[in-house]
Structures are given as C-alpha cells and as structure tokens.
Amino acid sequence: MSTKAASTLNPGVRRREAWAWAMYDFANSGYTTVVITAIFNAYFVATVAGNTAWATLAWSSALAVSYALIILTAPAIGAYADLKAAKKPLLAVTTIGCIAGTAALALVGPGDLWLAIVLIIVSNYFFGTGENLIAAFLPELARGRALGRLSGLGWGLGYVGGLLTLGACLAYVTHAQTLGQPPSAFVPVTMLITAGLFALAALPTFVWLRERATPLQSLETGISAAYARVRETLRHARRYPDLFRFLVCIVFYQAGVQAVIALAAVYAQQAMGFDTRSSIELILVVNVTAALGAVVFGHYQDRLGHRRAIALTLWGWLATVVLAWFATTPGLFWVAANLAGLCLGASQSAGRALVGFLSPATHRAEFFGLWGLAVKLSSILGPITYGLAVWLTAGAHRPAMLTLGLFFVLGLVILSKVDVRRGRRTAIKNSLDRLARNAAVEYNSTLT
What we know:
By secondary structure, the chain is mostly helical. It has helices at 3-8, 15-38, 40-48, 55-83, 87-104, 113-136, 138-141, 147-178, 183-208, 219-237, 241-270, 276-304, 306-326, 330-358, 364-392, 397-415, 420-447.
C-alpha cells in the first residue's frame, strides 16, 4: 500500500478493503437505475397496470410504502447492528432480500398488479436499508479528513455500476426487439440480469469487508435509546435555525428530484411516446451527464457560494420542468433530460455539502442522519404528488410534470431565508461551547 493511501485509512484497514466497501455502491446502483428509474417503472405503468389512470399512483404509492417502512425501522435496525456488532450479517440479509426481490420481478406479467406492488415494496425496502448499513462502515475505514474521498469513490463507482447494468439490459432489449418480442417477454429478463450483476459485484464486499465493532449494551435498551436519539436530534436541530430551514428546504426540492428519478421513463413513454429501448438510451446518457454535473459543479461550488450554488440548480430544475412540459419532439425532450442530469448531480452534491457546512462538528453525524431522513421523506412526497396529479387528470402526465415545479419554487423561497454565514457562525460557536464544557468536566474530574 502506498504511504498516501495508508495515511487516509484507519490503522489496520487495507486498500483492498476500502475498495471492497466502495464496490457495494457499484453493485447496488443497477437496482435503482434499472428497476426504479429506467425500465420496470415504465413497464409497471404500461403493461402490468394496463395504462390505467391510477397506474402511476399505484407505482408511486408502492415506493412510498417502502420508504415509510425504511424510516420507521431504520433506528431499530441501526441500534441492533451497533449493539450486536452485526452490520455485516444484516447487510448480507438485505442484499439477498433485494437480489431475490429483483429476480422475482421476472415473474410479473400483464395484470399481476399486487405481485408487482409487493415485490417493489420488498426489494426497495431491502435496498434502502442496505444503503444505511453500508454507510455505517465508512467511519471505521477512513480517517476523518478522508471520509469524503472514500465516499466519493463509492459515489463514482455507483454511476459506473448503474451504467454497466443498464448497458447490459440495453443490449438484451435491442436483441429482443429485433426478434419482435413485446416488453412482457424481455423486461422480465432484464430483472434477472440486474439481480445477477448485483450478486456478482457485491461478492468483494462480503469477502474483504470486516466487522470491527464490538457488542454493546442490552438490545431492548439500545433500541429504545435509538428512537429517543432521533427525537432528541429533531429537538436539537431547532437550536440551528438556518440548518433546520435548509433541511426543510431539502424535503421540498428533493421531492421534485425524487419524482423525476422514479418517473423519468414513465413520462418519456407515456407523454413522449418513447419505447423501452429509447428510454434506456436516454437514461444512459443522463447518468453520464449527472456524473459530469456532480464533478464540475462541485469544483465551482465553493467559488459561487453554497446558497447561490443550490439556488442555481433549483432554477435549472424549474427550467427542466418547463422544457419537459413544453416538449413535443424527442429533440427538445433530450435537452430537458440532460439539463435534469446536470442538475441532478449538482443539487445532490451541493445539498450534502451545505448540510456539512452548517452542522456543528460535534453533531455532524446526527445532522447527516437528519439529511438522510429529509431525503427519504421527499421520496414519499414527490412521487405521490405526481401520481395523484396523473390520477386526478385522468392519466395526463404533462400537467403532473408542472406540479413538480411547485416543489422547486418552494425550495427557492425557503432557501432565501437561509443565512449561510449566520448558520456557520452558530455551528462553530456551539461546537466550541460544547468542547469547552467537555474540557471543564474532564478537568473537574481530575480534581476529584
């Protein structure tokens, strides 16, 4: 191992283990890309639910249930993982659950609505819970100053993994369409491809990633304490009004973002007349654009200023919504989709960075937990709103697309009330106060 690599990892952590951790992002990204964003969502609406007016609402409701279950159970599962030193066994359970649920989606055909809903809830629940578990390994692997670097490696590999899985599916779909097969014949095979690549790519994680934690207190006490910590963190956040406002802002603007992620291919097929192959090609290119947006925008974010940078991405999202609503030709829709890709990578990167900037160093993990909670809430709010709009307009997707613009407008309004400099001063002051109190306690204990 090089000296530079060794200096960024904790003692006893080898570079191979850090790579194995990052490979999990590579492995599981195929699920969200293929099942949630590019292929199965459109198949669910058009084929499974038969293009009924409530089909999009059924899809978004299934996702909402899975996210609600993740929110409700995350504290207990996290407490169990910590107290029993069981992150890796639980990660294995969630991985097998997501892979099995994805493979079982191959059994879903026209009219199999409830089977599809149950399998989406199950597979997405295991996916989201697994995301939480793999993230919990990060502080064990990297030193504080290198957490972002290792996290970024996983993020980048995730884009690569999603593109690889989607590319493999595109190759099969192209072949199947040349043979004249309908979606009911080739979409189930893409579910098997996705499940198989997930299983294969996740193997390094389970071979080389180590469980370093040691068992702690009793389970019952730990789970109660976990839910109590969530309540305490929510109360604690109110001492940081600018950070709290920004977390509320995230709930609204990410609602629009999450709706786009979950329904992009649905809109492309229902409103623009794309077929499965065209939708996959679109999502492939947008993923590349999103990766470029995250890298390039992240480079200039500090120069622009955090609030201005996020405001710029929200204006970009508004432009995306208007262009998508206005588009009647594939060319203009491709422009809107790639603008969405740029804004997707940029807004996610910028939002996470501002949460870290406004968080006190002594409570950063707590507030990143609230950031995750805000994103999960938005994953319920956005797709449900879109699904309801489609249902209430008898299956019209264009008006539903415009409703997403309201989330970005609300985000801009709330963001205008966030004073980044004041929030940063509050975070630093409270961190220093806490450190001073801890030092005083330690000093007094030496006297006694």
